[in-house]
Amino acid sequence: MKKIVFFLLISFGALAQTGIGTNSPNTSAKLDVSSSTLGFLPPRVALTATNSFSPLAGIAANATGLIVYNTAIAGTAPNNVVPGYYFWNGSAWINFIASNTSTGLTNDQTGTSYTLTSADNGKIITLNNAGAITLNVPYFFVGFNCMVLQKGAGQVTLAINGTTTNIYNRYNFTKTAGQYSILTLVCTDANKYVASGDMTN
Question: Signal peptide location in the record (predicted)?
């Protein structure tokens, strides 16, 4: 009997994959969850800010790659969080692109002023007004990026906001060139952005 138990323990321990809903888990996956009618529901937590590991337990430095679904609207910019999927990069929570909005990758604005939020990461910001528009650019995190489209007649002017210190451009341009022009914003260093595209002064 002892030999049989020992053999079973060795056999189970030797399995490289675990299957839920399948007896043949994918050989490239450590965990394979299979279903044609059910989804995977991750832990739902109320995060407090992108720069705080709380309320999760454990050691933040050892949790790189951890995924949760945040249920809260909390914190203050640039560390505010909104409902959606987040992963821990070792020092901050990073929002999955467009996980927090039903409108996908676009954010349509019609006012004469708009301030970017961390939820705009990876999105296309359309600005549609007949008058001049100011786009305020705060600092969120290195790697933040978005595309800006001047959809209406109103020219868009980039403005430093919050802790942002510089918005660099090859020709020192700060405005969109005209209706239907597009520019891209990329945060390359702490508090610093590069703007490139169809721009002018």
Answer: 1-16
Global pTM reads 0.57
Under-50 pLDDT residues of the chain: 4-13, 101-103
Q: Residues near 167 by Cβ (< 8 Å), separated by ≥ 6?
A: 137, 158, 160, 174, 185, 192, 193, 194, 195
